[in-house]
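Structure (tokenized):
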């Protein structure tokens, strides 16, 4: 069975038309299914883990097909195929399935120059107010405060000095990652942080003699916290306070967005609303969602692999509106997005490489729904595609 046959067979499966024999063929082929004809690039993550994640989302898509929402259901089979094809496209963008016409006319461009994806870039501000442009700085020692600060290929590392040194609570450093950037940070306690585009993290240069390890986040970050039982780790953001001892989790708290989302991968955390006594303890695969200035915390079960896909080099969009997708695109490609008569009821899904040029992402999105785009320099206009109404 080739890949085209597999996708066609999966379409029958989502429509409930597969025989028992065909279902068995589908399961057997899935075990042999490869994500790419080329040798797998480990920078995209572990191949089998990604396959399993996609397969789980395919099964979820199948379950959704009985929801009764005909506007959404009519494209669900394609979303499932896009989940497969999207990962097939990682790095290579080999198009294997074209149920709708893919034409560059749906991406009207004022310039032929590609808009490239983001890269490692950030600005580090020290306690004395001095700034270091990390993307322009060579590897090696870059500062010496309460901790020795070094740069190593897209990562800043803090090494604690003598723990008997008196800690000044005002020795706060700030790492700012602009739109079109990402960066990694290792704090003085060994905690590892991945910062997404358009994010800012403020933190002590050292945690010596502090009762708590308190940092402040505006934006999105993934944390792997070093365990210190007697020194809790606290992340403050607008809308939530997250306290942990040692665990891995993701926080999305962009100032321009109304929701703060905390997703737990391992261990446990306690999420607090700053303006109330409301707290929730999370367990792995749970996400706390807080509405800023309103409270009303909700806890739901999620697939954490989808949430941290940005850290692993790809986007996963799962039954989302174009208005939910475009802020992610806007931050990573550092473009300004506006809308003209877009239908907020259409939903989109698929997996896309963060290493692709913007035009490639837009071209694939046009295959998923009634949408087209116009690029004017770094301004991106989102419009309905009247041809498919």
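Design, position by position:
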């Amino acid at each position: 069975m080739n890949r085209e046959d597999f996708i066609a067979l999966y379409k029958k499966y989502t429509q409930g038309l597969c025989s028992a024999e065909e279902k068995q063929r589908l399961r057997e082929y899935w075990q042999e299914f490869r994500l790419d004809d080329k040798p797998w690039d480990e920078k995209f993550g572990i191949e089998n883990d990604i396959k399993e994640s996609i397969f789980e989302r395919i099964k979820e898509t199948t379950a959704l097909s009985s929801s009764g929402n005909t506007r959404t259901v009519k494209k669900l089979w394609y979303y499932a195929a896009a989940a497969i094809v999207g990962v097939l496209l990682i790095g290579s963008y080999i198009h294997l399935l074209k149920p709708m016409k893919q034409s560059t006319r749906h991406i009207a461009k004022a310039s032929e120059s590609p808009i490239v994806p983001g890269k490692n870039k950030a600005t580090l501000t020290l306690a004395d107010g001095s700034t270091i442009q990390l993307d322009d700085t060579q590897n090696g020692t870059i500062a010496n405060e309460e901790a020795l600060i070094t740069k190593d290929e897209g990562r800043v590392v803090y090494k604690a000095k003598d723990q008997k040194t008196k800690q000044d609570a005002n020795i706060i450093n700030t790492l700012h990652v602009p739109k079109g950037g990402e960066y990694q940070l290792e704090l003085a306690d060994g905690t590892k942080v991945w910062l997404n585009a358009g994010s800012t993290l403020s933190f002590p240069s050292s945690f010596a003699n502090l009762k708590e390890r308190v940092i402040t986040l505006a934006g999105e970050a993934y944390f792997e916290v070093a365990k210190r039982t007697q020194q809790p780790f606290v992340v403050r953001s607008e809308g939530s306070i997250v306290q942990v001892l040692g665990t891995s989790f993701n926080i999305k708290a962009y100032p321009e967005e109304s929701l703060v989302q905390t997703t737990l991968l391992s261990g446990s955390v306690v999420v607090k609303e700053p303006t109330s006594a409301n707290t929730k303890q999370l367990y792995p695969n749970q996400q706390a969602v807080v509405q800023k200035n309103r409270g009303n915390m909700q806890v739901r079960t999620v697939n954490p692999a989808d949430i941290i896909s940005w850290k692993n080099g790809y986007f996963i969009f799962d039954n989302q509106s174009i208005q939910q997708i475009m802020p992610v695109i806007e931050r990573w490609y550092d473009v300004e997005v506006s809308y003209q008569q877009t239908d907020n009821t259409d939903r989109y899904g698929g997996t896309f490489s963060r290493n692709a040029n913007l035009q490639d992402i837009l071209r694939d999105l046009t295959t998923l729904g009634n949408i087209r785009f116009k690029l004017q320099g770094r301004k991106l206009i989102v419009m309905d595609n009247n041809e498919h109404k």
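Reviewer-requested clarification: The two ends are 35 Å apart (CA to CA). Residues 61-105 have pLDDT under 50 and may be disordered.
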